[in-house]
Inverse folding.
């Protein structure tokens, strides 16, 4: 199976912006194991700005473009260094791919991206994708990695996109404010009732929320790819999704006619 896994900043870092070492180590070990099982994996990783905040000892996530882009330049480097080091322990080779919305919108560059991605997978490498935050401006950026990862999943003809987040999935109400909220295990259609459940729930260091996740779900479902939202706090959730089939998560099922 070809799988795209997206990890958010809150999964990779502590609230301080510093790397969550225990979790990131577990994530890289488990993704290595998933590759060893024979799956093709593409990782879409946020965390450039978040890790830049930590490395530059900034007090909070910057709001001005120049500092955000500077933080991304520092943090992307740190992010890839960390991935390279951890995946190397399990003999997996990582490849960095940085994209803007423009790259996916222009036919020739999109084609080039797909060809390179395909070649990397054939060579057994692990493509690690992020938005090219250091150059992206409002006009050309995708803006959030939930949407970017769905675009990547569709471009790569992946069967499954897994969004690892700081929440177990889609709930009937915001579980932070409604303790009786129930997890919705399966979604077959993004009807009004489901869309109304999306809250703007961006965290301190990340970018997306439930809204961007539902945008991603629509893109996937319309293009024959299932999408799962699961909690990345314990990366072994990936085993429960891919092997045991007993994961606590929400699965958005692709429309059958497009699968
Ligand atoms: N590209 C941003 C980063 O690496 C994150 C975007 C997102 O979290 O959606 O920091």
């Amino acid at each position: 199976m070809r799988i795209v896994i997206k990890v958010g900043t809150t999964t990779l870092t502590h609230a301080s912006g510093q790397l969550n070492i225990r979790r990131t180590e577990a994530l890289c070990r488990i993704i290595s194991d998933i590759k060893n099982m024979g799956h093709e994996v593409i990782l879409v990783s946020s965390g450039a700005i978040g890790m830049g905040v930590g490395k530059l000892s900034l007090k909070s996530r910057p709001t001005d473009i120049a500092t955000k882009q500077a933080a991304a330049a520092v943090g992307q480097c740190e992010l890839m260094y960390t991935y390279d080091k951890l995946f190397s322990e399990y003999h997996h080779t990582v490849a960095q791919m940085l994209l803007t919305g423009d790259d996916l919108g222009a036919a020739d560059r999109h084609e080039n991206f797909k060809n390179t991605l395909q070649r990397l997978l054939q060579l057994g490498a692990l493509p690690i994708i992020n938005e090219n935050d250091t150059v992206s401006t409002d006009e050309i950026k995708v803006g959030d990695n939930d949407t970017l990862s769905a675009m990547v999943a569709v471009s790569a003809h992946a069967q499954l996109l897994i969004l690892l987040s700081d929440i177990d999935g889609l709930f009937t109400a915001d579980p932070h404010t409604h303790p009786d909220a129930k997890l919705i295990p399966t979604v077959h259609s993004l009807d009004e009732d489901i869309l109304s459940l999306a809250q703007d729930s961006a965290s301190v260091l990340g970018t997306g929320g439930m809204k961007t996740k539902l945008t991603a779900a629509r893109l996937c479902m319309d293009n024959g790819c299932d999408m799962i939202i699961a909690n990345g706090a314990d990366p072994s959730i990936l085993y429960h999704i891919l092997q045991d089939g007993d994961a606590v998560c929400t699965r958005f099922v692709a429309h059958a006619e497009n699968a």
In short: Residues 2-258 form a domain with the Carbamate kinase fold (CATH 3.40.1160.10). The chain has ten helices and eight strands. Residues 8-9, 46-50, 72, 130-131, 133, 144-145, 206-208 surround glutamic acid (CB under 6 Å). The mean pLDDT is 91.
